Amino acid sequence: MKVRVAGVIKEGNRVLTLRYNYGGVDVFALPGGNLEFGEELKEALKREYFEEIQIDIKVGEELLTAEVIREGEQTLHQIFECSINKGVPILNPAETTSLEVCWLEIDRIKEYNLYPNINIYLGEIDLANKYVGVIEQKWF
């Protein structure tokens, strides 16, 4: 099983994502990535944000845990509330294949292909430490 950390950075009614395009379909991912051996969850998330979009973040409490099971592969997603300590999100092409940094409106988030697919949970007020189980993830 893989463990992937991701962060939710909100500014007003918007959430920070990275846009990818697979087979002509836009997919918006919460920034983050897989752990390296021996790495703690919050440190991995800080590393991923710095590598991919060159910002220093503060990692807050865990918002939710979700699982994706697909073709002999299982990923446990640990999603944390985050905020920007320093910097402006700018892609680092040496560390990511994403096409751009995108701020998506939370009240329209269900219109987007989100990875992980936690669209329905982002508008909830009391999200802290919620286990949502196996989520349906579209693949393109």
From TrEMBL:
InterPro entries xrefs: NUDIX_hydrolase-like_dom_sf, NUDIX_hydrolase_dom
Cofactor dependency: Mg(2+)
GO terms, molecular function: hydrolase activity
Domain Nudix hydrolase: 1-126
Superkingdom of origin organism: Bacteria
Keywords, comma-separated and alphabetical: Hydrolase
Xref: Pfam families: NUDIX (PF00293)
Gene3D superfamilies for the chain: Nucleoside Triphosphate Pyrophosphohydrolase
PROSITE patterns hit by this protein: NUDIX (PS51462)
Record PANTHER family: GDP-MANNOSE MANNOSYL HYDROLASE, MUTT_NUDIX FAMILY PROTEIN
This protein's name: NUDIX hydrolase
Organism: Arcticibacterium luteifluviistationis
